[in-house]
TrEMBL record:
Signal peptide: none annotated. Keywords: Acetylation, Hydrolase. This is Glutaminase. It catalyses: L-glutamine + H2O = L-glutamate + NH4(+). GO terms for molecular function: glutaminase activity. It comes from the Bacteria. Substrate binds at S63, N114, E158, N165, Y189, Y241, V259. The keyword Acetylation applies. Homotetramer. The gene is glsA. The lineage of its organism: Bacteria, Bacillati, Cyanobacteriota, Cyanophyceae, Leptolyngbyales.
Amino acid sequence: MPALQPFLEDLYDRYRDVSEGQLASYIPELTKANKDWFGISVVTTDGRIFGVGDVDQPFTIQSISKVFAYGLALEDRGRAVLLDKVGVEPTGDPFNSLIRLDEDSKRPFNPMINAGAIATTSLINGADPTGKLNRLLAMFERYLGHDVVIDMPTFMSERSTGHRNRAMAHLMLNFDMIAQDIDSALDLYFQQCSVMVNCQDLAVMAATLANQGRQPITGAQALERDYTRDLLSVMYTCGMYNRAGEWAYRVGIPAKSGVSGGIIAVVPGKAGIATFSPLIDKNGNSVRGLKVFEALSQEYGLHLFDLSMGRCVFTEALE
């Protein structure tokens, strides 16, 4: 099996000229991205870092934030409350579907679609909107090991054009899935999506989940280890928009994508992997990123059910 760093460099050369996909346009600020940006990063649970390409290029985290906000809400409210308000079932509908509330419970189907993410973020504790935002930012800082900032142009862009999200919030208010203060809940959701990261940051965050919630570089416990199972479960079944089933079939590890072009994936006990390329397909997933992960999974036997190879092959590549 090839060593990891040379293989990452080969993948970068192999896919850097892929021109399929489009920049996300429903958030106007995202159309300013450079189509050529492309990075691949791997961070192991013992803190080793591998990478190639634009791993330091900042961009907004977008829907990848849903994973980590879900973890904070679980710590604040517990599983019973979260399950009462947000389900954990996958849906084949687009991430911004207006109508997909469970017919019986009226809950959003899962926390990885927009409706479920808005309901989840509304459950984060705090005395007021500023207190909630500060707790959210502190959570991201535990994962990243450094200060975080919100990109204000993206936040304002999402706030001024997020009419579908506002409609979802009103629908959930009607069914008592979120509280009365819709504007504050939406602002917090738009702010979490506008947090600035880079590809290596995302790999560190994924490695933290691979390491049972402990940040592999700083050693900080970013998430109670008991809840890492919850996050990885919903990532595996619901994390890749309405391509989640095909991802589970082809790649086979927990993952989450965002329309700004990031994808994170977790090899439990071993490493976090991230890619960044802003050209996305019709489902909102990075085109180059999908190709990279399929190649990595095939080469190193990362699929959870690939018992013939297993993670020992990936471990050897990290040596």
